[in-house]
Structures are given as C-alpha cells and as structure tokens.
Amino acid sequence: MWKPCGKTYSSEWNLERHKRESCPGKGFRPKGTPNIDKNANDANTEDTVIIVGSVKFAVSRQALSRSSAYFASLFQLHEPMQGDVHVDVDPNEFQMLLDAHNNPTSITVSNIDAVALLADKLKFTTVYDHCEKYISEKLPQFSVMHAIRLAEQLKLSAIKQRLFDSISIDVFRSLSADQDYRLMGADLKAELLEKWGTFL
Fold first, then answer.
1. Could you read off the pLDDT of 11-58 as tens digits, one per residue?
2. What are the angstrom distances between the C-alpha of 162 and each of 20, 113, 135, 138?
3. Which pTM was predicted?
4. DSSP 3-state assignment of 56?
5. Contacts of 185 (CB under 8 A, 6+ apart)
C-alpha cells in the first residue's frame, strides 16, 4: 500500500506510475518520504522543512506561498539560513488540509470542520472556497444543523441565511437529539428558536 493516499497496486510499475502522475499526496509530503517525481518543475521542488507540531513536512516554499497567503508572509520573514519553520497547529489536521489542497474531493463530513477552520487560519484561499461550497451544497444533505453551526463559526452569513430558509418543521422537531445543535452557542440557538416561532 502507498501510504500518502492509501491506494494498493498489483505491481511496482503501476505503483510508481501512480506516484509520478496522479497521487493526491504528491507535492506536499511528510519529511522522509522520497521525492519520486523526477520531472517536477523547479518551482515545486521541496526546498524547505516546516515543523508542524512535532512532525516535519518537506515542502516547496514557492508552491506553498502560492497556495497560502499565511505562508507567503511567513517565508518573506524567514530566510532559509534561519533553520526550520515552526507552525503551531495539529499535524494531522495540517495533513488533511494538504490532502484537500491536492484533491478537493477528500473533503468529507468527518473532516470539514478541521479543514475549513485551518484553511481560514492559514489563508489557503482555494481550499477555503472548496470548503465554503461543501458547507453550502453537500453538508446539509448530512446535517443542516452541522452546516449552520459551521457557517456561523466561519461568518458565512449568506450561506447561513440560505440554510435557515431551508429548514423544515421536521428538522425543528428533532433538535433535542441533534448533536450539532447542542454544540451551538446561545446566540445561534436563539436565532433558531426565533425561526421556530414562524412555524407556530
């Protein structure tokens, strides 16, 4: 099995081709994973180590700067001779963010909170846009309360209002058992109760 993306191949040739051409883990890898893309552009060459929590990631300064305004600013202030760059976030969540950067379809109901919040914090604009679309279009299919809670947390007011407008009376009847409703703050719960009043 090829660990960066979890895929299994029947031959070494197929595995090497996958790693070269289509692996979603290509481009950003934990330090120690070999760079197997022999034809990579210089702009994507791993030339910097960043330490996230206690985990080292070998990355391209230029590629990461293009993807994240946070890292673009950080690298401007940090010269290579100053040593490794430290980022105080959860390394597992950072890996999820990089996975979403390489493959937006990796965003799921189970990781959307971590990916969206970290994309917002580290200013990964493209990933954040994908998360915003997921919250608006896909997440409500699993839980409209989850989508509302996250839209509120990220200050996506237009999306939150659309979600409010989509709530049915059946959703309100099951609020007491909804875990995402329980996680909401008092102000958001008050807004929901006000909406509930329109059905009475």
1. 454 445 545 444 544 445 554 443 323 334 445 566 788 999 989 998
2. 42, 19, 11, 13
3. 0.72
4. strand
5. 152
